[in-house]
Amino acid sequence: MKRKTLIIPMSLCITAALSLGTPIQVLAGSPEFSRTADEWARLRDNVLEYGEIADLVHEYNSTVLQNENEYRKENSRTPKEITSAYLDAANSAWGAYSNAQDGMTAAQSLIAARQAENAAEDNVMTEDKKRTQLLNSLEERNIVKQAQSTMNTYYQLQYQLTSLKKNRELLEATVTSTQGRQAQGMATQADVLNAQQNLQSADAQIIAMENQIESTRQNLIITLGWAQNANPEIRPMPPIDVQRILDMDVASDTQKALDADYTLQVDQRELENANSEANRQIKRQKIEEEKQKIAVAVSDGYQKVIEAQSSYEEAVTNLEVAVKNWNTANTKYQLGSISRMEYIQEETAKVKAEMDVEVKNLELFQAMEAYDWVVEGVR
Fold first, then answer.
1. Phi, psi at 269, each rounded to 5°
2. What count of Cα atoms within 13 Å lies in the side-chain half-sphere of residue 281?
3. Which residue from 5, 111, 161, 348 has the highest number of Cβ atoms inside 10 Å of its Cβ?
């Protein structure tokens, strides 16, 4: 299923969708000339790559498209017209308050009047188009950040599912072994029931994990413009570039974050637009607090990268041990010196260690991405 940009009568779209079971895709947010033919082809195929997420969000995410539409609509009215409308509403509410015949009506009218007056004042303070653009850009980048995290989680869950399935093989073998030992008088019925319960529990965990994976997949593709019943190919996550860690510098990156931070930029615009010294003082205090938060976010983000790197290296070491143990067990099993159960135990430990390395690798990747997002102005 590919995204479509041709403008086709809606009746024909619906007819085709119903007859073919094909999900209707949203139109791109940008005009055709804004990208090359190759770029559009890459975004319109039925393949999702990590590096495409930002462009897919920009062109197809419903929230981003709605924000852009509302921005254009709002800018068709002047700030003075919007403020005037709020003041008219406030005057009307004050009139209702003065003429109210009961306490409930008076209270409701008073609340409405004050809300309208506050809205009028807020509009005067925030009529700056740049502020709206900053807020929209921040929301879009947060959606990109979340989508990247969701794709990362999708693959972490896949690796965890592999571990669960391998563990199920061990538990199934345990049931068979326990039943055999019971027949020889070496295990009780309670032992068999316990082994069977462990296997049933593993089956339930696998089902729950599969459901979580599907839910995560749907959340990801819907965010990027696919229909809920679409089935795009989700390509593997990109490899880690260790050089990125070596290039991290908390001091210089903190300054970059201060310069780029979207929330701080919005606060600064509101300070410039504030129409009273009291409002300006509040904004100055908030800006100073935000600067402190940014510095902390960069420092914390770096520490999380280092911790994730350490966890990954530990997982690699554990895998080396697990592989060595499995090789030894494999040799012994071929010679008949250990049981099948003992061999399966070592094989399961090896697979779990392999999957743990993959998960820790993705956790490190996510920590690095989170750090870069803070430096780029998104907390």
1. -65, -40
2. 3
3. 348
Looking at residue 339, its amino acid is: S
Q: Is 275 exposed, middle or buried (0-12, 13-18, 19+ CB in 10 A)?
A: exposed
Assign 376 to helix, strand or coil. coil
DSSP letter (8 states) at residue 184: T
Which residue type sits at 368?
M
* HSE, side-chain direction, 13 A CA sphere, residue 359: 17
The pairing of strands 233-234 and 47-48 is parallel
Q: For domain 240-379, is the CATH number 3.20.20.80?
A: no
Give CA–CA dist 109/91, Å, rounded.
10
Low pLDDT (below 70) residues in the chain? 1-26, 76-81, 117, 119-128
Q: How many CB atoms lie within 10 A of CB 190?
A: 9
* CATH code reported for the domain at 45-76+129-237: 1.20.1600.10
Spatial separation of the C-alpha atoms in residues 228 and 222, rounded to whole Å:
6
Mean pLDDT, the chain, as a whole number? 89
- Write the DSSP string, 320-346: HHHHHHHHHHHHHHHHTSS-HHHHHHH
**pLDDT given for residue 103 in this prediction:** 75
- Which pTM was predicted? 0.81
pLDDT at position 124: 52
Cα(46)–Cα(42) distance, integer angstroms = 9
């209707």: which residue's tokens?
24
Report the C-alpha gap between 255 and 269 in whole angstroms.
Answer: 19
Q: Are 348 and 330 in contact (CB under 8 A)?
A: no
DSSP 8-state assignment for residue 24:
P
